[in-house]
Amino acid sequence: xxxxxxxxLKEAQRMVDIIGRPExxxxxxxxxxxxxxxxxxxxxxxxxxxxxxxxxxxxxGEFAVTEWVGQGSILRDALGxxxxxxxxxxxxxxxxxxxxxxxxxxxxxxxxxxxxxQEMLDPLRAHLGKVIAAITPGDIQYGFFANSxxxxxxxxxxxxxxYTGKPGFIAMLRGFHGKTLGSLSLMGKSVxxxxxxxxxxxxxxxxxxxxxxxxxxxxxxxxxxxxxxxVVAEPIQGEAGAIVPPDDFWPRLRELCDHYGVLLIADEVQxxxxxxxxxxxxxxxxxxxxIMCFGKALGGGVVPMSAFFSTPKIWKVMEPNxxxxxxxxxxxxxACAAALAQITVTLGEDLPRQAAEKGDYVLGKLREFQSRFPxxxxxxxxxxLLIGMExxxxxxxxxxxxxxxxxGVLTAxxxxxxxxxxxxxxxxxxxxxLDELLNRLEDTLKSLA
Length: 449
Description:
single chain, 449 residues, alpha/beta, Aspartate Aminotransferase, domain 2, 2 domains, 4-stranded mixed beta sheet, 17 helices, globular, PyrdxlP-dep_Trfase_small, Class-III_PLP-dep_AT
């Protein structure tokens, strides 16, 4: 594409004008044009591969499903087609889309200052740190705010190496921690790793939920003199398909890390803030990690936000030179306002309890479907509203997701296990919508049977 600054200005101004108009002042023809142009722009300026992968294109008919407006657990595309959101932005929308309390807090802060000066002390970031210290287990007290989950994991890895002086990590097969190079080194699936090898050295992978394997890896590393900084795991594996470990796994991880003198990092990016039926995933087993990573739901589904937090003893290494780990936009006032509002909603509306109760309800219904359609729905698992449905093949899983999409339900597979379809809606989704979602799933399974 040849350089054309005048075209750039014209096109930018056109979309800014559309955004600025009330919804009822954007006509049907203009919306159709937006839907068609979006496909064209993805093909020429984002990634053509998405157009073959996204059900919003392959299953949508003449006009691709172009995201337009959402509220709560309902999404509507540019042409007015409605979808029940059972995907929740992969865990982003724990409070639903555009929760009014979070939106109001962000708008109010926007009228004061959208970013910070980098020199003055910013009160919202400090106050959010105090709040997270108050609600996390054990003596977790200090933290650093960033923008995405993978940044939180990268920071946790740096902190562990900095504190222990050791280079290595033990991570879990099928684990997912992000796709920047450090986080990718921890990932437990070759398709994302292999094209980019070599990654960080000294990372050993063991089966998730197998504490004996972790012990053997730690013992072997010690025997040959390989320094291990930390064991890293998700409390419940999200992208692997809502894999719940045995009840003794996390308590034994804590014991093993203490015994071998390595840190324990809990990646709570997807499980944190109520998703699994407790405030944090590790709360199911009353375990306190040395470092916790947060993301996704932290910003209330309104502003990107992540963090990694640790204890005063470990954080001490960051004090002599606080510029050892920095970011320009992480923990900005808008994100902190969103996170503070998110926590008031999560705690005030007792979303962890809601997730636990609704999760039990959905899992019960899904197990009924499993007994009726055993050749299609082979396994159901999860905690709270982090639920996975396992199918015999990737193809069957895609047919289920596509069938749900054609029936107005938004869901998807996972990034490290394509046979699993996730159900990960807002924690405050109504039982009426859950029933409608389940009815449409039942209809999809019947059509495949």
